[in-house]
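The authors assume throughout that readers already know how a fold can be written as discrete tokens. What matters is that the chain and its backbone geometry are given together, residue for residue. A single example would do more here than another paragraph of explanation. For illustration, here is how one protein appears when written out as sequence plus structure tokens.
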Amino acid sequence: MHIEAGYVYLFGSNLFNGAALICDLNDPWNPNYLGHSQGTYIHDGYVRNDTLFSCHIYDGYFSIINVANKANPVTINTQNTPDNFTHNSWLNDAGNALFTTDEVDNSVLASYDISDPNNIILLDKFQTAPGSQAIVHNTHTLNDYAVVSWYKEGVVVVDISHPDNMIEVGHYDTSPLSGGGFDGCWGVYPFLPSGNIVASDISEGLFVLAPTYVRGCYLEGTATDANTSAPLSSVQVEILSTSVTKFSKTTGVYKTGYSNAGTYSVKYSKLGYISQTINNVVLQNGVVTIQDVQLVPISTVSISGSVIDGSTNLPIPNAQVNLTDGAYNYDLVTDNAGNFNVSNFVTGTYTVTAGMWGYVTDCSLTTTINGGNNVVVTLQPGWYDDFVFDFGWTKTSTANTGDWVREEPVGTFNNNGSLANPELDKSNDCNDKCYMSGNGGGGSGSDDIDDGGVGLSSPIFDLTNIISPKIYYSRWIYNGGGNGTPNDTLYFYLSNGTQEVLLEKVTISNVNASKWTDVNFLISNYITPTATMKMRVYAEDFGQGNVFEVALDKFFVTFGNVGVNENGTLANALSVFPNPSNSSFNITYNLSELSNAFLQIEDITGRVVEAKNIVSIAGNIEIGSELESGAYTLRLINSDKIIRTVKIIKAK
């Protein structure tokens, strides 16, 4: 509700789809209905003179509505807000800037130039605790300060005298809690004659605060290329010894600042440029300090590399390769000769990851790349996927939300504090990605599986020449919340091209929720292995209104370099699982003959670090439990000959 100039504007009722109702209060004992806005549900709004700024929370935008004719309001323009869940809005004193909040995890206070309602311009975004996932709720403005209720962060006072450079100048945390979710300070009122601020905390009660309003210290300037003087966008500007970080715009202009006056060092950094720190920058309250900067480009080199098959030493075409040092990231694909090349490469120490369907993804190589060395990655044959790369899993969906995505997971929490969507992928694999059912963040039910099912199918894999193949994967399931009994279901199927069997049916009643769970199955117990195998995952929501999240990671099948002897039986076979491993390795072998046979593990220098004799022509051996983390070579030796060689990875 908002009252302005003798009229009340009512929001979110069950009339007219939740439009704004306008009533005349000139006779407050007999309010007179005059009209309503058109369009979608309005959650909240702010009115000044004959203009309504309405917040359409479920549609994610605010609208500017001319209400001069109360019986026939006219929408002038609309604008989506940064997090598309527009909860509240308020004008500054001059009436040329509007401030909005989005009621979702990790949301921001946003400012807009609305001096021309037909040309709304986003000016700035502000967070009080970046990375905390905290939700901003309501903002009010007074004397060019925004006084904001910020759920688990409390009351925040922001200097908005420069709407394009909002600076926090006051903060009182009312809650012992932190993070996302709906608790803590959800209402604040700064308009009392005393000047005191009244704040309401959902769990902690009422707070009366006596504020001291001060102006921020503004730091502004332009970042350019030292060689060309061209403006540089996305330059990170850090006021050292504070938590303040901002970035330059496409024009090279940056605007930042801090609450406390003083002398600071300011660091400027951008990918491809040498970082620069300027010392003794003086900041004063209420004063704009101008500090321009020119960054020098980093010199680059050209590099080359290759990916080869560890069993044949032949090149692998179309293998995917990633090189990253944390700041720089290169995604490449090998050519028909198994080679890759990069020009304009920034030298440094990189982690090299390579993979392809039909091989075990390798991320064990960390090396200094300076252009003078050739980067070689060896991949061992195997059916393995930890979803660092896109190997072509296919998706189907009949659900409204929660389709499968291959990303780094964003954790969401249910009301009882349990994780719904995972926050981390499965440990001890390459990188940080997995497949999961939606990854939109926000509340636990904002991007879960709703009203249907989502399917995920692997590429085809060939198991015809593998001894007793087992299939392994890690799964995640959460099903809870809501009013009904959780009944959603996760299915795993295996097909050999002619028939499909159910490996497992997973519900909340037979697993530990919110936990990565490792499972494995001996394939021959379920289906005949063929050259056209495929795994299919299907998760179905049965409509009880519960949160339903699932995830998949670290899929692999035990695989060995196998030969076929003249009688058609498997000979000189070697299979290692799991690989990588954070404990021991299970070695399955099958020899055509037995003569002084043993397994030998060598480190990267060629030094033998462990060996075990083989006393039977076929069997299983555990090895490597005492190895330090790193990359090793495992050799199967028989009759004084190296029969098979496999790279193994001992994870931390």
Q: What stands out?
A: The CA atoms of residues 461 and 533 lie 5 Å apart. The first strand starts at residue 2 and ends at 4.
